[in-house]
Automatic annotation (TrEMBL):
Co-factor(s): Zn(2+)
NCBIfam families: D-hydantoinase (TIGR02033)
Organism annotation: Ruicaihuangia caeni
Similarity annotation: Belongs to the metallo-dependent hydrolases superfamily. Hydantoinase/dihydropyrimidinase family.
Modified residues (N6-carboxylysine): K158
Amidohydrolase-related domain ranges (all copies): 54-449
Record's keyword annotation contains Zinc: no
InterPro entries: Amidohydro-rel, Hydantoinase/dihydroPyrase, Metal-dep_hydrolase_composite, Metal_Hydrolase, Metallo-dep_Hydrolases_sf
Record PTM: Carbamylation allows a single lysine to coordinate two divalent metal cations.
Secreted among keywords: no
EC number: 3.5.2.2
UniProt cross-references to Gene3D superfamilies, sorted A to Z: Metal-dependent hydrolases, Urease, subunit C, domain 1
Protein name, as recorded: Dihydropyrimidinase
Pfam families per UniProt: Amidohydro_1
Length: 486
C-alpha cells in the first residue's frame, strides 16, 4: 500500500474551492482533509502544493493518435506514446480517442486491435469512441457496435455526416440513434453536410483556387449549420440524446442553443483552435496555412466572439482538442504529412495539434481574460466530459473514491508556448509565442507523478489503462443539472 499526501493546495471542482490536504492511497483519493490534518508520518511521501490549485486531471474526449487517413496512405505524426506524453505534460490525464475500421476489418476487431496498441503505449488512461462505418446500413456493423458497448463499455459512437467513404445517410443516423438510445450509448456527430462541402470544394477547384487557405471556403458555415440542425431533428425523432463534436461555426452553436431551449437533449463540444485562432492568422501564410487545415475549418475572427458567447452561456458542454497532429516538414520515417498537399488544399491531411496546450490556452483565454470562472474551466475541460462520456465518478473530479488524477496548477507561472518546449511530434503549434499565465507544475495519474514543469517524468509507455465507460446518463450530466437548476 502506498500513501501519498498532497499538502497545502486549493481544491477546485466545478462548483467549489477550498484549501485542503489530500490523502492518496494506492492511486485513489482516500480522503480530503482540512489543512494540516495529517502529518508526514501518515504517508510514505508528502508533496507540497502551497500556493497552487489542485485541479482534476484534464479529460480530452477528442483525440486522434496513430490516426490513419487518406484511405491508409498516411497517418498522424503522434502515436499513442508521443500523444499521451504530450497530454500528460499539459495536465491531461485521460483521453478518449477513436476507432476507425480499416477497409475490410469489422469495427469489433478494429477496436480490439487499437485497444491493444494503445494499451502497449499510452502513458495516460484512455478510452475509445468507435466510428460507425459507412457500410453500417448494409452489414452487421451495428451488432458489433452494440457488442462493444455492452462488453467493452464503448458507450459512445461517432457518425460522420461528411467525407466521402465515411459519411452516412439519414436512415443510418436514425437507426443508429435509436440503437444508441436503447443501449445507453451517446451518439456523436461530425456535423457538416458532406454534399455541400463536396460541391463547395468542386467550385474552388473549377476556379483553380488551390492555395491552402481556401480550405475555409470549401467548408461553409451553412454546411455545418444545416448538418447540426438535421442531426438534432433526427435525434429528437429517434428520442435519443446527441453530442455534436467540434462546433466551429457560431451559427451552428446558435442552432444548438435554440434546440436546447426547446428542451432537446443535445450537448456540444468546441475546441481551442476555433476560439483562439482565426482565418486571418493563416490567410497570408502560403503553405503555412496547411498547419491550420482541419475540418470543420478555423473560421474568420468575427465568428469567434459569438462562439465564445456559446461557451460562456453553457451551450457548449466540453472543450476537446480534435488533436490530429501532422508536421509541416516531411521527416524521414513518417508517412506523408502536410506537405503532400502543398499548393493543393484538398490533398492536405486534415488536423491540428493541441492536446498539450489545451488547458494552458483555455486558462489564459478563458479564466485570465475573465470570460470563464475557474469552475467553468474545470467543468468544460474535465468534469463534464467525464460525466457525459461515462467516466465519472472515477475521472473528472476531486472526490474521495476518485482516481488520484490531479494537476498541481501554478496560477502564477508564466510560460511562452512554443514547439521547442512542447512534446507532440508536430513541428508547429497554433499557439507559438503565446504567453500564458498558469501551467501544470505537477501532474499525477492514479497517484503517480507523470509530469513536472511541463516535462514527462520517467514516462512508462503502457502504464495507461483502458477505461470501460458507463452507459450514458448514469452520472448526472452537467447539462441536466444546469437545466434542472434553471
Ligand atoms: N477533422 C476531423 O473530423 N477529424 C480529424 C481531424 C480533422 O480535422
Ligand atoms: Zn470530426
Ligand atoms: Zn476529430
Amino acid at each position: 500500500m502506498t500513501r501519498l499526501l498532497l499538502r497545502g493546495g486549493e481544491v477546485i471542482t466545478s462548483n467549489e474551492r477550498y484549501l485542503a490536504d489530500l490523502l492518496i492511497v494506492d492511486g485513489t483519493i482516500e480522503a480530503i482533509g482540512r489543512p494540516g490534518q495529517w502529518g508526514v508520518d501518515d504517508a510514505d511521501e508528502t508533496v507540497d502544493a502551497d500556493g497552487c490549485l489542485l485541479l482534476p486531471g484534464g479529460v480530452d474526449t477528442h483525440t486522434h493518435l496513430e490516426y490513419v487517413v487518406a484511405s491508409g496512405k498516411t497517418r498522424t505524426a503522434d502515436d499513442f506514446e508521443s500523444g499521451t506524453i504530450a497530454a500528460a505534460c499539459g495536465g491531461t490525464t485521460t483521453i478518449v480517442d477513436f476507432v476507425r475500421p480499416p477497409q475490410g476489418v469489422g469495427v469489433y476487431d478494429a477496436f480490439q486491435q487499437r485497444r491493444a496498441a494503445a494499451a502497449a503505449s499510452c502513458v495516460v488512461d484512455f478510452g475509445f469512441h468507435p466510428i460507425v462505418p459507412a457500410s453500417a446500413g448494409d452489414d452487421d456493423s451495428f451488432d458489433q457496435l452494440v457488442r462493444l458497448a455492452r462488453e467493452e463499455g464503448a458507450t459512445s459512437w461517432k457518425f460522420f455526416m461528411a467525407y466521402p467513404g465515411s459519411m452516412v445517410d439519414d436512415d443510418v443516423l436514425i437507426r443508429g440513434f435509436r440503437l444508441a438510445r436503447e443501449h445507453g450509448v451517446l451518439p456523436m456527430v461530425h456535423a457538416e453536410n458532406g454534399h455541400m462541402v463536396a460541391d463547395a470544394i468542386a467550385s474552388l477547384i473549377e476556379d483553380e483556387r488551390f492555395e491552402e487557405h481556401n480550405h475555409l471556403f470549401g467548408h461553409p458555415a451553412s454546411a455545418e449549420q444545416e448538418a447540426v440542425n438535421r442531426a438534432i431533428m433526427l435525434a429528437e425523432h429517434a428520442e435519443s440524446p446527441l453530442f455534436i463534436v467540434h462546433v466551429s461555426a457560431s451559427d451552428a452553436a446558435e442552432e444548438i442553443a435554440r434546440h436546447q431551449a426547446r428542451g432537446v437533449e443535445v450537448m456540444a463540444e468546441t475546441c481551442p483552435q476555433y476560439l483562439v485562432t482565426g482565418y486571418e492568422d493563416y490567410r497570408d501564410l502560403g503553405f503555412g496555412a496547411a498547419g491550420y487545415i482541419c475540418s470543420p475549418p478555423i473560421r474568420e475572427r468575427a465568428n469567434q466572439e459569438r462562439l465564445w458567447r456559446a461557451v460562456e452561456q453553457g451551450t457548449i458542454a466540453t472543450i476537446g482538442t480534435d488533436h490530429a497532429a501532422f508536421t509541416l516538414a516531411q521527416p524521414e520515417g513518417l508517412p506523408p504529412q502536410k506537405a503532400v498537399g502543398r499548393g493543393h488544399f484538398p490533398s492536405v491531411p486534415n488536423g491540428v495539434p493541441g492536446v498539450e496546450e489545451r488547458l494552458m490556452v483555455m486558462y489564459e483565454t478563458g479564466v485570465m481574460s475573465g470570460r470563464l470562472s475557474i469552475h467553468e474551466f474545470v467543468d468544460l475541460t474535465a468534469t463534464r466530459p467525464a460525466q457525459l462520456f461515462g467516466l465519472a465518478p472515477r475521472k473528472g473530479s476531486i472526490a474521495p473514491g476518485a482516481d488520484a488524477d490531479i494537476v498541481v496548477w501554478d496560477p502564477k507561472a508564466s510560460r511562452t508556448l512554443g514547439v521547442d518546449t512542447l512534446h507532440s511530434r508536430s513541428d508547429y503549434s497554433l499557439y507559438e509565442g503565446m504567453t500564458v499565465s498558469g501551467s501544470p507544475r505537477l501532474v499525477f495519474s492514479r497517484g503517480e507523478l507523470i509530469a513536472r514543469d511541463g516535462e514527462p517524468v520517467e514516462p512508462r509507455p503502457g502504464r495507461g489503462e483502458y477505461l470501460p465507460r458507463q452507459r450514458f446518463g448514469t452520472a448526472a450530466s452537467g447539462w441536466r443539472a444546469a437545466h434542472a437548476a434553471g
